[in-house]
Amino acid sequence: MNQLDIRFTGAVLDLTIELEGKEVGLYFDGTSEWSRTLEKFEIEGKLDLLMLCKGMNGTSWKLEIIIDTERTKTYNGEIRKGYSLLSDEIDISPKE
To answer: pTM above 0.85?
Structure first.
C-alpha cells in the first residue's frame, strides 16, 4: 500500500482525476486549489493517471502527486478548446 498526496491548482470549472482506473474526488478550498491525501492506496506496477479539467481557454493548471512522501511528480498545462486532458503511467519502483 502507498500513501498519495494529490494537489491540483487552477481556476477550472470541472475536474476529474482517476488513479488506477478509479475516480478520486479531491477537496476544493473555495478558491483554486483541490487536494486529498490517500493513506492506503494499492498500486499495481506503475500508477495509472488520468486527469481531465474543463474551463476557460488560456487557464493554466498544475497537478502534483507525492508518492510515499519521497517522490513527487509534477505536471503543468493550459486549457485549450475548453479542456485539458492528461494520461500517464508513473513509475513507482525504488530509486537506485
So the answer is: yes
